[in-house]
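Hi support team,

I'm filing this because I wasn't sure whether my run with MTE finished correctly. The job status page said complete, but I'd like someone to confirm that the output block is well-formed before I use it downstream. Pasting the exact inputs I used:
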Amino acid sequence: MATRQEEGAVPDFLRMDGPGGPQSTNPHSQGRWYGWPSSTVNPVNLLDDDGRVQRVRTPVMDLQGLITPTELHYVVQHFAVPEVVPTDKWSLSVEGEVKRPLTLDYEQLRRFPGRTVRTIMECSGSDATYFEYFKGEGSKPSRNQERMILSASEWTGVPLAAVLNETGLTGKATHIRAEGWDKGVPASAAEGTEPFYYDKGLPLEKALHPDTILAVAQNGQMLEHLHGAPVRLLVPGWSGNWSVKWLWKLEVLDHEPDCWYHYNFYYYGDSPDDPNKELITTIGVKSMVTHPNDDTDTLSTGTHVVRGYAWSGGGTITQVEVSVDGGDTWHSARLEEPIDRWMWVRWSYVWNADKPGNYKVMSRGTDAAGRVQSHEPRYNNMRKNFSAIVGYDITIQ
Ligand SMILES: Nc1nc2c(c(=O)[nH]1)N[C@H]1C(S)=C(S)[C@@H](COP(=O)(O)O)O[C@H]1N2
Ligand SMILES: [Mo]
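And here is everything the job wrote out:
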């Protein structure tokens, strides 16, 4: 009977003599590599009481290439995962400040010319525990163990602008309120708050950007339920919470709607009463080292390749620098092609580590808007959008 493979054990059907077998000198036949992806590259799946996956955290430190396989792509939502609506039962209403209100079924939506967008998606809560760490409170979070709410996919759908072009807009339109059919009461809401549907109010300019799409597919496959099937909004460059899943309603408005998650959750500000709260939209400029990292105790003297990702919601990545001395001196890293507007960029730096000693390895990203990743996080009451430089202590011996 087939049993689950133990970590580190060679499965029975590979126990054969000859090339590739256990006696082979081929290094790939040893250890954990058996010719299929390493069993260590797993997401952290959070389950509900019925054992179904509800939330997913991504093993970013172990990813290769640019696309996060869908089963490793993070999953976040605030309320319980809502019921499945099959494509033939789904429809989208578009009303408000439009000339011709419209209800589209799935087939009608798919008659518009499609568009494919490759983008990272990062939750505003990504790396939030680093805020405490930077204040000197608490130990260093582990991106290896906790995984991340950061991923990248290829999304296919229809530009929201194409649908709005069909309905036409009145001269008063300023915002598009997008609503999903998941309903609940946030844990931090004031007592007596009635259950409401998750919604966001997108400014018209961003709504009309051709890369803001109503997505029906992810990574070459039909959208999965946990990612908002059958149709979700995708707002590249902005925090994940703008990309409303399980989309069923669009309302065109002449004002910014008072969505609960705007100024109660995804805002910059010092306190809930801060009179100068700022709505979180664009994600910061951010880079991270994926190798070596906190799982690396020591490296031998010699040449090592420092690797990682860099991304920004505000513009294409134009430069990544690496420091091995805690930020005193910086060296240009190589940006690896392709350098896509909304995607993360892979970068590398060849480090000639000739002298034994203690080093602090870190990276710093710059984007086309001239934004440079900072050493200090932008502190805010909700601990959102951490994007500061994180260093790793590496010993060379
Ligand atoms: N309908 C709905 N859409 C939603 C949410 C939600 O709670 N309800 N959460 C948002 C948040 S906070 C994030 S980070 C992204 C996550 O998308 P993903 O689960 O496909 O990665 O979905 C956004 N869209
Ligand atoms: Mo999020």
